[in-house]
Amino acid sequence: MIRIMARTLLDYSTEQLWAMLTGSFCLVFDNGEEIQTNFKETLYSSFVWDFHREFPTTPLLPKHHVKSILNGRRLGSDTHLDLLGTVMWDVYEHNLETALKAGVCEEDFRDHLAERIYQLTNEMYNVLTYRLEEYVVSLDITDFINVLNHPVIKEANTTVVATQQSIDKTYSAISGALLTNDDLSTNPIALAARSKLVNVNQVLQCIGPRGYLTDTDSNLFSQPVLRGYAHGLRLFYDSLVESRSAAKSLIFSKTPLQQAEYFSRRLQLMSQVVQNLHHGDCGSTTYLMWKVRGPVIENGVLKRVGDLKQLAGKHYMDTDGVLKTIHGGDTFLVGKTLKLRAVIHCGHPDPYGICSTCFGDLTLSVPANTNIGQMCCTSLAQKSSQNVLSVKHLDGSSVVDGIVLSENEQRFLQVAMDDNSYMLSPQLKDKNVKLVICSDQASNITDIMDVVDVETLNITRVSELAEIGLSFMVDGKEHIEAIDISLNGRLASMTYDLLKHIRIYGWGVDERGNYTIDMTNWDWQKAILTLPLKHFNMSDHSRFRKFN
């Protein structure tokens, strides 16, 4: 096989290399390492090597070649960003000192590299869109049929049942086949998913079950839609339920979007007071204690990505007294409680500024003279506004957040099997427990005495509780504990079992006008409160952030 010194290719422009390179060959890099590659991968990499052509002292390494970036994956919509970022920061590291000696300040040098990224991205777009025109593919219904008839996907769709666990398992099986199965290696739908040209969650809505949908008020419908768009929504119920997606899209484009935008505006006005980002270390010894959580996978579905990705670039004080930087691959930090440097504890003398050490390595991506408060709020709020506007595109199978109790709350309550209801803790047995409920939050409790069967009532009309009081006896003394039982704006309601208990044994009223319910004859295996099956959407997120 032909061996080519990678640095010799820098003597030619990418345009010249289009006419020179062909077939497969071995590239030898500056550190002596070799990789087996071809003209396609090398031409793609050559666009980015303009950094090396401009800064020839920068070593040309295997990690600057797209094959190392892909590591066996397909070329995707963000591959060029990964490659550009890898090369740019190496150029920054190897040439910063030279630039400073030449009288170029660090900010100007960094801005120049950022400008080159913009120019190279534009050049790649201009050249590749016409040179690769003949390789553009399309898809039709036969491609969907081939995917639906794949044995793994067909079995997953056939065996799915009306539970969230089954739907998650089906999604996991279908996405696994789409992204990894060799039988679909030439299917345009699978190729688009593997290259991240389409949203996999949206593809699953087409070739898998549509899942649990929500009404315009974000309450979940009791039965999921077990067919996808490719199979066709043939039941009247399925069509009616799915029609709510378009209705939500129309509704969210009005008042919810206005509320999200106004929240963004208020947030920016408040945060603009933090104007300056100073390079250096304020020396603060006050830290933000943070326990690093790892990813959570349930039934093959990633429920939480973990904290490392969000914490990458932040600085922390290690146990040996050394200030270190968190990287995305530092899995050894999972489960540890770190002393994070944070802007809320920054000790810089400028009352309108913060230091770069407390802000983190994200400092390197902030242009000079940027109002840091404005920039951070804009970056945060734009995602909220965009997701409110894109509710129809993001409206997959909705999942209700489960209850998570703190250590203190676990002394009094426990979570039922459905993860959506509260039960009394067994520790309270034989302690003369009484529930204390604000009368304003259970204004229709008297309705339970006016009906033959309490299950004919809507429990959310009887009570909507943000918190509950527990009165119990310890060593002959009465203790009262107030517990917050709301979750992301979802207010709890008394269960039918508790309403039946109240109907039999009645309720009392304390000196403050609160309802008191004696739990002496209560069945401790039953739930006392339940949360509505309501999806926490981006409009709720904006309102929640506004009041918290």
What is this structure's SSE topology?
Blueprint: E1 3-5, H1 14-20, E2 24-28, E3 34-38, H2 39-48, H3 50-54, H4 66-70, H5 79-101, H6 106-131, H7 141-148, H8 151-159, H9 164-180, H10 188-194, H11 200-207, H12 236-252, H13 255-271, E4 276-278, E5 288-291, E6 296-298, E7 301-304, H14 308-311, E8 315-317, E9 323-325, E10 337-340, E11 353-355, H15 356-359, H16 372-389, H17 391-394, E12 413-415, E13 421-424, E14 434-437, H18 459-462, E15 467-474, E16 477-484, E17 493-494, H19 496-505, E18 508-509, E19 515-518, E20 529-530, H20 538-547
Parallel strand pairs: 1-2, 4-11
Antiparallel strand pairs: 2-3, 5-10, 6-7, 8-9, 8-10, 12-13, 13-20, 14-15, 14-19, 15-16, 17-20, 18-19
Description of the structure:
The chain has 548 residues and is α+β, with helices and mostly antiparallel strands. It has four domains: 3-135, no CATH class; 138-204, no CATH class; 258-394, no CATH class; 409-530, no CATH class. 39% of the residues lie in helices and 14% in strands. The chain has 20 helices and 20 strands. Strand 18 (508-509) and strand 19 (515-518) form a beta hairpin.
Mean pLDDT score = 87
Q: Which residues sit in consecutive blocks of at least 5 with pLDDT less than 50?
A: none
Helix content: 25-40%
Into how many domains do the coordinates divide?
Answer: 4
* Largest beta-sheet details: 5 strands, antiparallel
Please give the order of strands in the largest beta sheet: 16-15-14-19-18
Number of strands: 20
Radius of gyration: 30 Å
Write down the overall geometry: globular
> CA-to-CA gap between the ends?
64 Å
Helices, by number, come to 20
Q: Tell me the structural class.
A: alpha+beta
Strand content: 5-15%
